[in-house]
């Protein structure tokens, strides 16, 4: 109640030309802390120029205006060191700075939206398949986070149409892609844990079923004229690194087997 009365009293002072407030009263009036004002003074951002009869530094109308300008620029995302420079340079263009900061904030918003979308997708996987270990969750979230990088790598080797078929765009495609990634991850983890060879019947049967779920031409994907080094790079874009060799060897067995040649 005491603070509320003080704020009302100081509010009247704030609109008068002869406003003079000590640091404590000014802090209360503008809803900040003495510590903040002391720090602003220390870095030369907001330094009271006058003193009262008791030799106390006082905040006048000029400091009030500057304080609100500082808060405005802070709310737009500028750091204090840049705010200090801007307020010291009388020739700076606020319009240009607004345009620049808008671009920065839009980029930050896009990154936040991407992170939120990634969290929504991983929670969907957890809801469908049950809880994940920390390692599995990080692997799947990285697979989602790096989708654009995967898309770029694949475009070096395949047509844009094929890449668009493989990499998800719509929510339905993303859900299907996340399910496939989860199943691939679980499959290879269990195969390696159970010491199954890449050429075992269990591995080959499951791999064939999983690849049938990929929405693209398998012939174009794996019968292309890519060397083993390029294939390895593509696999790294699609799977966790520690499973790349197992996957590559299993694929070699699958697509070089006489049975598969007969089916083609």
Brief sketch in words of this structure:
By secondary structure, this protein is an all-alpha fold. It is built from 15 helices and 3 strands.
Give a written overview of the molecule.
70% of the residues lie in helices and 3% in strands. It has helices at residues 2-14, 23-29, 34-42, 61-75, 80-88, 94-129, 134-145, 147-154, 160-166, 171-193, 201-211, 218-222, 228-238, 244-256, 258-263, and strands spanning 21-22, 50-51, 57-59. It has a three-stranded antiparallel β-sheet. Helix 6 crosses helix 10, helix 7 (134-145) crosses helix 10 and helix 10 packs antiparallel against helix 11. The longest helix is centred in the middle third of the chain and has 36 residues, at 94-129. It starts with a helix and ends with a helix. Mean pLDDT is 78; it is low at 1-12, 225-229 and 259-264.
Task: List key phrases describing it.
264 residues; mainly alpha; three-stranded antiparallel sheet; 3% strand; disordered N terminus; disordered C terminus
Oligomer: single chain
- The separation of the N and C termini measures 84 Å
Shape: elongated
In DSSP terms (H or I, runs of 4 or more residues), the helix count works out at 15
| Element order: H for helix, E for strand | HEHHEEHHHHHHHHHHHH
Q: Can you list the strand order of the major beta sheet?
A: 1-3-2
Estimate what percentage of residues fall within beta strands: under 5%
SS-based class: mainly alpha
Mean pLDDT metric: 78
Q: Helical amount among residues, as a percent range? A: over 70%
The poorly predicted ranges are 1-12, 225-229, 259-264
Largest sheet entry: 3 strands, antiparallel
The total strand number stands at: 3
What is the alpha-carbon Rg in Å?
31 Å
């Amino acid at each position: 109640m005491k603070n509320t009365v003080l704020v009302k009293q100081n509010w009247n002072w704030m609109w008068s030309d002869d406003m003079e407030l000590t640091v404590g009263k000014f802090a209360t009036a503008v809803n900040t802390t003495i510590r903040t004002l002391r720090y602003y003074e220390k870095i030369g951002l907001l330094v009271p120029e006058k003193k009262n009869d008791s030799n106390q530094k006082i905040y006048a109308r000029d400091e009030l205006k500057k304080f609100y300008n500082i808060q405005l620029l802070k709310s737009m995302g500028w750091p204090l060191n840049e705010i200090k420079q801007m307020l010291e340079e009388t020739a700076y263009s606020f319009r240009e700075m607004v345009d620049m900061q808008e671009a920065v904030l839009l980029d930050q918003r896009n990154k936040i939206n991407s992170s939120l979308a990634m969290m929504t997708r991983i929670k969907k996987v957890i809801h469908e398949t049950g809880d994940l270990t920390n390692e599995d969750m990080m692997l799947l979230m990285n697979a989602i986070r790096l989708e654009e990088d995967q898309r770029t790598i694949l475009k070096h080797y395949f047509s844009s149409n094929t890449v668009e078929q493989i990499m998800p765009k719509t929510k339905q495609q993303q859900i299907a892609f996340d399910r496939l990634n989860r199943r691939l991850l679980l499959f290879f983890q269990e195969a390696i844990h159970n010491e199954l060879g890449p050429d075992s019947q269990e591995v080959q049967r499951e791999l064939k079923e999983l690849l049938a779920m990929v929405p693209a031409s398998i012939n174009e994907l794996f019968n292309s004229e890519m060397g083993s080094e390029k294939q390895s790079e593509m696999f790294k874009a699609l799977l966790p690194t520690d499973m790349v060799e197992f996957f590559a060897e299993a694929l070699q067995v699958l697509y070089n087997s006489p049975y598969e040649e007969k089916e083609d």
